[in-house]
């Protein structure tokens, strides 16, 4: 559907696409970066590198829109998202084609990611009903209630791996709660959100309520530092999440910065081999492993050769491509080099490469291809067992006992997801009580909570002073509580302490 070289991306400020504010950015470097399709490594267009001047324009537009937007009823605001949801359905094919093109997902993965984005919109549509607050007569004639007040201009800095879904984690709840937003898409996948903001406008969203500023760290930092920005959410690598959280803390700004992940799954000897192998292969290779909830380490309790054999045969059956059941490329050359380096290092340290995705790199002439890779480790110190890779690689390690599996998982510095495969409720309970992760699964490959349950990890997978980014976590993050104490009936000599 797309020809190569789309029009270059523009920022979206005050309801229209605009060129960069100044002709040369403050960094003095190039103003546009090429955007490439991971399928063939060819340029599809260019993304602008915004400076503090562009950020100032976007924040000013969001600030100007805030009084009227926050003054509307929550039902009114949610009603616009209802129309937006219908437009997403109408344009789901186009949105998912854009995700395929710029991100490299398969068509069915892209469709699911758009549909998951719609689930987030649906939750925000329900907020008039579910975000109600408390009211209580606390003593005779005295009633307390609290109400939720929006923060003002909020910022969302998002990663490359889900170009529609992750921006909708924050955007949907933030605006229904009455905030206005400046969002910085990933410079690797800037096109899809340009369609999303057009659909928001078509749904009736007033100009300035949602703005897009494209670019890299310079734009992100200018957004964080801007005095009119009240709160910042981020999702990306732990290294950057930590830097952003610290920067916000210094400025006393509300921040939730989600980081990377290393998710461990345990297979007990009584697990269902067919289900476990199917789930794990789909989950570690799905979206080419570029999911913060992908299971990347399998700990088998004892030798489970039958399970490993099934994992190997199902992984080997996957073919490269963009169709159903196939697997797409990874995002760019840097990611491909990184994944290859980790596999090479594991091999050198004595691990057995049971399925070798590096053959795809050799076979495919163009694009960033590495196939599903299954590695059997014997050295517990191998980096692949501990560090985030963000690629289609499953590392398997045999442990002797449930206690050893838990100790291994608990020692991991991240804490996004963890899972157990078993046929025993008691075994499942043992692990769920002990996993050191925010999102846990029983017989589920990738335990992503669905609305109304909130999304968020622990430890190095989350920085900042709030817990979860979606669901009621998002409502809490994107609002302040105003507590009101009232007395309408005169009580003679009674005071509020009566
Ligand atoms: P990234 O950290 O490289 O970039 C994320 C965003 O931050 C981008 O918009 C980027 O332009 C910006 N950025 C990069 N460097 C910056 C800096 N020094 N200062 C300010 N902003 C900066 O992450 P990525 O490669 O786009 O995404 C992959 C990572 O995201 C993985 O680690 C994955 O686990 C993580 N992720 C986590 C979650 C979660 O919920 N925990 C969700 C999605 C992705």
UniProtKB/TrEMBL annotation:
Pfam families: Aldedh. Residues 31-483 form the Aldehyde dehydrogenase domain. GO terms for molecular function: methylmalonate-semialdehyde dehydrogenase (acylating, NAD) activity. It comes from the Eukaryota. InterPro entries: Ald_DH/histidinol_DH, Ald_DH_C, Ald_DH_N, Aldehyde_DH_dom, MeMal-semiAld_DH. GO terms for biological process: L-valine catabolic process; thymine catabolic process. PANTHER family: MALONATE-SEMIALDEHYDE DEHYDROGENASE. This is Aldehyde dehydrogenase domain-containing protein. It comes from Mortierella hygrophila.
